[in-house]
Write a structure and sequence with these properties.
The complex is a heterodimer of chains A (110) and B (114).
Chain A: E1 9-13, E2 18-23, E3 32-38, E4 45-50, E5 53-56, E6 61-64, E7 70-75, E8 84-91, E9 104-109
Parallel strand pairs in A: 1-9
Antiparallel strand pairs in A: 2-7, 3-4, 3-8, 5-6, 6-7, 8-9
Chain B: E1 4-7, E2 10-13, E3 19-25, E4 31-37, E5 43-51, E6 54-57, E7 64-66, E8 76-78, E9 87-94, E10 104-105, E11 109-113
The chains are: A mainly beta (110), B mainly beta (114).
Chain lengths: 110, 114
């Protein structure tokens, strides 16, 4: 599995855009990039996945540059309910021995 | 559609006691996983299964055992509870193996060993 590095924590205010960058310098050709969100006292929830360029869904956008050595999760106009831990995972089909790192704790303030 | 259901939600064990954490999914997923999450940390893989009758160790299997007799159920057994096993345990499932398949997690079991 490719090693990932992401910030430990980020603070924001309601209505702002939050961008979390994940570094994965040794990403392999067949690897996908997946992000999960975990609220306190809950299990992680899949939010978005991509391979290259840009992916957008109703929750977030994922930007992946051409070299794929990093990716950025973008949360538009955050609210207090977006306060959570966000995990970046990189791996290919069949890499099911996944362990989640410490993730990025995003705190949204009023 | 319940997804992944874990029981119990909370449990306090004494050192040396045994217990089984239950996990059931109703999505007909072949892949199932057990993770533990210590305070302020990420999730570490304990055991996983790629189908009924097939299980394998993850990153931190010591002190645990699993079985997978049906597609739906994947119980985790603690034989001799130790304080180091105090943690939150999450069960997850997926339709395929790998990060390009989104994992569905249960709500967790908070275990305290005293």
């Amino acid at each position: 599995l490719a090693k990932t590095t992401q910030p430990i924590s980020m603070d924001s205010y309601e209505g702002q855009e939050v961008n979390i960058t994940c570094s994965h310098n040794n990403i392999a050709t067949n690897d996908y990039i997946t992000w999960y969100q975990q609220f306190p006292s809950q299990g992680p929830r899949f939010i978005i996945q991509g391979y290259k360029t840009k992916v957008t869904n109703e929750v977030a956008s994922l930007f992946i540059p051409a070299d794929r050595k990093s990716s950025t999760l973008s949360l538009p106009r955050v609210s207090l309910s977006d306060t959570a831990v966000y995990y970046c995972l990189v791996g290919e089909a069949g890499d099911y021995k996944l362990s989640f790192g410490a993730g990025t704790t995003v705190t949204v303030r009023a | 559609n319940a997804g992944v259901t874990q029981t119990p939600k909370f449990r306090i064990l004494k050192i040396g006691q045994s217990m089984t954490l239950q996990c059931t999914q109703d999505m007909n997923h072949n892949y199932m996983y057990w993770y533990r999450q210590d305070p302020g940390m990420g999730l570490k893989l304990i055991y996983y299964s790629v189908g009924a009758g097939i299980t394998d160790k993850g990153e931190v299997p010591n002190g645990y055992n699993v079985s997978r007799s049906t597609t739906e159920d994947f119980p985790l057994r603690l034989e001799l509870a130790a304080p180091s096993q105090t943690s939150v345990y999450f069960c997850a499932s997926s339709s395929g193996g790998g990060t390009n398949y989104g994992y569905t997690f249960g709500s967790g079991t908070r275990l305290t060993v005293v």
